[in-house]
Each structure stands twice: as C-alpha cells, then as structure tokens.
Amino acid sequence: MTPRSGVSSSGEHPRRPIVSGNWKMNHDHMAALHLVRDLGLRLGAKSLGKLEVSIHPPFSDLRTVQLLVEGDSLPIALGAQHCNPEDSGAFTGEVSPPMLSRLGVSYVIVGHSERRLGFGMSDEVVATTLRGVVRHQMVPILCVGETAEERQAGRTEPRLAFQLESAVAKMDPERLANLVVAYEPVWAIGAGRPASTVDASDAATFLRKVMTSLLGSEVADSVRIQYGGSVNAENAQDFVAEPDIDGLLVGGASLQAEGFADIVESVAACYGSSS
Ligand code: PGA
Q1: Nearest Cα residue to 244 out of 209, 272, 196, 193
Q2: Among 96, 192, 194, 258, which one has the highest count of C-beta atoms within 10 angstroms of its own C-beta?
C-alpha cells in the first residue's frame, strides 16, 4: 500500500477525500433500506478519519435513505444522481434542486456520461444543472471523461478541458471551492477494465491544471478530483495513492454493502485513518 499525505501537489491545501457510490437504476426503496443498514453497521465500526462517504440512490429511495441516515446518525452523506436545472415548472418526470436539498441531499452527480450519451444531456445543460445545484447549497460531482474513440485519436486532454470549461464558465470561482470533479473515462465504466493509475493520475493532474487557469490556484487546489470506472476493493488504493486523485466514484461495486465498505476502508487506510 502506498500511503499518501492527503495534501495537494502544491502541499498547501489539504483536501477532504471522498468516496461516492452511484447506484444508478438499481435497488428499490426496500433493498435500499437493507443495504444502508448493513453499510451503516460496517462503516460505523470503522474510523474513517477525514474520509467522506456519499451514496447516490435512485430518486424513489431518497426519503427512505434520508430517514435512516439521519435517524441513526450514519457517517454517510446523501447524494442524488441527477436533477433538472430549474427550480419548478412544467418538466414532466423531472426532479428539481430545491426538492433534493429539502430531502437532505448534499451531493448531486452532474453530467454522468450515461446522462450525456444516453439522454442527450448537452454541455450547456450540464452547465445550467451545475449552477442549479450550487444555487441550492449542494455540491456538484461534475463528471468528465473521454470516449475510447477520443482517446485513440489523442483527443483526451482537449475533450476534458472543453467539458470542464463549458461546465464552470461564467461561474464565480468562489462558489466552486467545494466542487468535486469525477474523471470517468467512458470506456472504463462498467467494463471491468479500469484506466491505468498512470492514465488516471495524468488526467487528474491535467484537470487541476485547467482548473488553475480557469478558477485560480486557490480554488483549483481545493477542488476534489475523483477517479471512476471499474473501481473495486483491489484497485481502490492504487488510484487514491496518486497526489491529484482525492477519491473515487464507484458504480457496480457500490451495490453491495460489504464490497463498498471494503473500498471505503482501503481508502481510509491509504489516508492513514482506518482502524
Ligand atoms: P462502474 O461505474 O464502477 O460500475 O464502472 C462507475 C460510474 O459510472 O460512476
């Protein structure tokens, strides 16, 4: 295991690591109840130190999970997978940022590649959604990542820069100090084949460089960067050992309490805070 200091590459701004579980369209509210109870028991027994854990169930589970997390004071932050940018209106089937914040949601995934590619979420809508989330005092987890074709064509960095820039354009940098950016190469998601730690680390360092020029070094040093794509308990530590990777966005491996708790524990150990 490679321990890490938990400080930025500049050594000036410690960042609080964060591991997030994206359940996608899995688990109804009864299954959610069982999973969160189990997870709460497992995580409650560990010392997570400064490590933050968020879970992102489907909308229909949020109230159930909220009651459980608050009632049992679990060391878990409530997250959502998506939302509409508007506060209210004639948007059939959608859920708004204030609805989520009233439910105690603190993190919202914005612009996951499954939304971008499967539901036509444009870069412009990603940007307005990000603004909607921030307007309601929640923290966006902004997903960026190149497709296999873009990587093969050597267009990874321009793609990442464009996605990041278009999402935060015209926003006051001060409102983005809490931002989480998830680097998720599209080809690694659900593939059982993660990016190499070198590629993930290079992408994270590049993203921080772009953020420095867009938002200034103080904000860029406080933004947390996650890696996501086929993360499991065996490879989790390899990613967070990298100085610019501050956490993980986990899909499939977050669907079971034991596997997800193992990931959380191994990340906490990397930061020297597991028991
Ligand atoms: P995966 O999904 O861990 O199942 O690859 C990650 C994600 O889509 O966030």
Answers
A1: 209
A2: 194
